[in-house]
Amino acid sequence: MSTATVAALEVRAPAEQTEGTRSQLLRWLKAVGERVAENEPLIEIETDKVTVEVASPGAGVLSEILKQEQEQIEPGELLARIQVHAAAAPAAARAQPAGTAAATSSAPARTQAPAGGQLSPAVRRLLAERGLEAVQVRGSGPGGRIMVEDVLAAAAAAGAPAPAVPQPGASAAPPAPAEGGGVRRVPHTLVRRRIAEHMVQSLLHTSPHVTTVFEADLSGVLADRARLREAFASEGIALTLTAYFVQAAVAALRAVPEANSRWTDTALELHEDMNIGIATAVEGTGLVVPVLQGAQGRDLKDTARGLDDLVRRAREGRLSPADVRGGTFTISNHGVSGSLLAAPIIINQPQAAILGIGKLERRAVVVEEGGSEAIVVRPRCYVTLTLDHRVMDGHQANRFLEVFVGRLTHWPA
What's the CATH architecture for 1-108? Predict the structure, then answer.
């Protein structure tokens, strides 16, 4: 009888984590007793910013699960063990700890990616929640890749119900709805809970919010975009208005560096780099803020290229923790969903300000031409700067928006 020992590999949560970030174990992609290959995705972890995968550190059999789905985890925490001896597979299945039964029974079978490419964590999660297989979904992404929107469209066409994920500790039977109408419970995700906490903390307990409002004429920007868009597209770059907003924000931050700062109890820390976060709504996840690093050193093309990459990966659920780290200023282009004006927009702590862009629409305005006044129609939008009043006063906020609006109005001068 062989006396060979069976080596065990430890599976741990990522040790690198931004200060203040929380993580929970979202989903096991394998069950106890199943074989795993080295570098095969094993776990999905959801932070309050992104969803990331933890890969298997080696090949073997998943022998022990130590943390259950929906449980909060700490950086570097031990999550599971893998036996690397092939002969241990049957024993591993028999020796499953009683505490892992729920994880084993609820761990979804890993959906195989079609020829269109590997599935992102967000897409895999939606497929499992909607009861769909990847082969049932037609991918619209590059190379036929399945996108979040593709799964939602397929689910709607098939009449698949929206998911109802149980909250840890919640009773199996929800309370009876109030008389006169039904109630559908949608448990909060970690992202949604963290957003709620962040909003309350920022507005009510951290900084006094003040908002100033200007109006911008985008005639020059639209003309320049029409001139450049085809050339950018030939290089695979989507030229959006947000690229222009980032460029104008860089000019304004140079004029008012306090807007690119952090308040501390002893000093105001002014950032040399302009790492601009772009608030992005992601279906099924909520609001994420990928960060365009070093915006002050980018021209329009490089800005557009960087934004295109970040927003695409955000909507595909492929952002890494590094993509949402280190922001010093944030832009919220809420006008893309039809909003004219939002005030205040809650500051993304520990930043000092956040820029809001309202809906672009054609408006009648009075202009002076040749010494007389005339009514003309121009493409315009409201822009706001919500600031931490500890950091800046009103005249600095007005100066910021004066430079920002001036840069847009006189583009490309």
Answer: Beta Barrel (2.40)
